[in-house]
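User: Show me a protein chain along with its predicted structure.
Assistant: Here is one chain, sequence first, then structure tokens.
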Amino acid sequence: MEENIIAQIAEAEEKGKALILEETERASAVRADAQKRAAELRRAAETDCAVLRADGIARAAAEAEESYRRSLSEAAKRAAEYSESLLKHTDVYVAEIVGRIVK
């Protein structure tokens, strides 16, 4: 009976060792797959970020250009309005100066 129990214990120990070895190999395979997937995700994320960055830069440049053109147009309009307002009043001064010269 004791021999039977010892044999069962030895058999259980062998099965335990085999199971540990099997699960260790499985864990290594899972870890390798996870590392491979992580590398793929990192590359995909880097590509996505590069595209988003390039799009963001292009969009910001376009918005800045539009803002610049709009500001330039508004400044030109104000300058033209200011010039016109000054020209409206120059007739009086021109007539006065010409009148002084002619006398």
